[in-house]
Structure formats: C-alpha cells, structure tokens
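The instructor's notes for this session suggest beginning with a concrete chain rather than abstract definitions. Hand out the sequence below and ask the class to guess, before any prediction is shown, which regions might be ordered.
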Amino acid sequence: MLAKRIIPCLDVKDGQTVKGVNFVQLRRAGDPVEMGEAYSCAGADELVYLDITASSDGRRTFTELVREIAAHISIPFTVGGGINDIHDIERLLNAGADKASVNSAAIRNPELINDIAHNFGSQMCVLAIDAHLEDDGRWRCYVNGGRKATDRELLEWALEGQERGAGEILFTSMDHDGVKQGYANEALAMLSDRLDIPVIASGGAGTMEHFRDAFIKGHADAALAASVFHFGEIAIPDLKHYLAGEGITVR
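After discussion, reveal the predicted structure:
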C-alpha cells in the first residue's frame, strides 16, 4: 500500500486563513504563513492554499503570499483560486508553489487541463471538484465557490479530467463540508475505483475515525481537512499514530 497523505487546507481571504460550514459562515483561523510553518513542523505531508476571493488585486496579493509561504515551509504545497489561464499557473509556480489547483476555470474551459499538463506536467495539475448530491442521486459539479450549479456530473468530469492530463483529483463534498460527520466515502470509492490517478478526500473530517474510513472505505489516497487542524481538535502527530495503529501506512 502506498503511504496515505494528510493535507491541511487553508482557505485564504484578505490575507487571513478562514473556515466555514457548507462553504459559508466563515470565521478567521489565523495567519496562513505561520499556520503553514506549524503544519510543516507537525508532520503534514502537503498543504493546500486556496484564494477564495481571488479578485485581480487579490491574485497579486496572493502571489506575494505564495512567495512568503515557500520561504517558510519545507513540504510541497498546492495553490488554487482565481486561476483562469496558463499565465496564472506560471505566476504561482514561479512564486514557489509545487502544484496548481483548478476548478471553475477548468469546467468553463477544459482545454486548460491539457495546457497545464503539456506545459508543466500532469504532476503539477490538481483538478478540484466541488460537488453536491442531488435528489436524483447524481453528484452535480458546482463552480464559483459552490454558488453555481453546472451540467457536469462528478464521475464523468473526473474521468475527463484524467484523460486531459490532471495528475490528481481533489473531491470536496459540499454536503459534508465543515459539518464533521465524515467524508463522502461512497462517492470517494466510486472515484478511486474508476480512476488511475490519486483521489484526495475533502469535506467532513471531524474525528480520527473519519480519516481512517476515508482511506479504508473511500479508498482515498489522501485526506484533506481544515477546521479540525486549525482549531486544535486533532493534532497531526496523534492522527498519524492512530492511523498506523489501524494498519494504514502513513508517511
């Protein structure tokens, strides 16, 4: 078994880390550079930073923040939010990011995935998918921070993203985000069993058992979480010790 990854996610607004429930009700969590450095020292495998307001001015500010993060942490980190074209990718990678995450822009222009893979390699491209379970049982993809529904369905879009060159899928269940009742393990297993690229679970972590279930039941390659780490509910060394005791290989 490949080692499973634990990934804190830091949503950044106006230079501060924030966290909400179901994509709303945001509250401040701390300084993104200081938090990233602490997570790096605590044994996190990677970090994800998302610029959740991503205006034109915000993107320039975020680029400077990415440079500062890169100077202070020693683990890989992914950045996303407000990425619309290959030039945005180049700017963030040049600032020190290891990977770029695309979501809304990729749904609007799927060729963006091909362009990233061609210019920088698939390993640089994380396709983030925010999806909501509809009444008809289909997982519908959303864009614009979960505010706008699309006609894309989770599995078919993930498969197309893989075909176009995405190196990883970051799947966030909007229904599970921030409510701490566990990950969407059935949907995770569906993705993991059909895709050949790693799947990162996002949305729903509340206990150490939830991480275990994402790996065992959801077959996820990595588990991302925010508030349980940001507000001290779960310490990463304790989580890794627990997972190892459950027979799960961790880094």
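Then share the key points. The first helix runs from residue 32 to 42. The chain has a mean pLDDT of 91.
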